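Service request form, structural biology core

Requester: graduate student, group of Dr. S.
Request type: structure prediction, single chain
Budget code: on file
Notes: please return the result as structure tokens.

Sequence provided:
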Amino acid sequence: VTYEDSFEGTFCQGVYTRTFTAEDACGNSATAVQYITIVDTTDPVFDAFDPTIFVECDQFDNLELLTATDNCDETVTITYTDVLNSGGCLGVVMRTYTASDDCGNSATAVQYITITDTTAPVINTPENQTVECDNVPAMPVVTATDNCGYDVIVTGAEEIIPGECENSYTIVWTWTATDY
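Core staff response, request fulfilled:
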């Protein structure tokens, strides 16, 4: 018994035609045809992932996307939509992923991304300096930046520490930057 295959269609859907030929020792033969219908109705499957993650606000755009596999299609297309559920710039983003194969099958997965800001602002602190007693500068106005781009409020405080000589002292300026 021998057979030959032919195929019509795509990898998503098609028909294999398998023609069997049986021949006996006397040269008598018979044929039979088998039709094997191929369909892909199986959705892609997301690879293992953590459904709840925490990320610094300045790393949100660098998150790795989920991946998925499919039983027939080697290249699964992944798309997503984000919905900010709370907190303004900080909060929880509900990211809904859709994995689609080329045969029209799809699956969805939801991941909750909690956006945090645990990084303090950076103050542009002026250099230390030594001045004459008749040339003491006023407390400088300093600025600060934030890794997440939030508004930063800078407040300052002054402390005077007496020196060993008359008219000799140290001024200590302390700034505090808070992001909002």
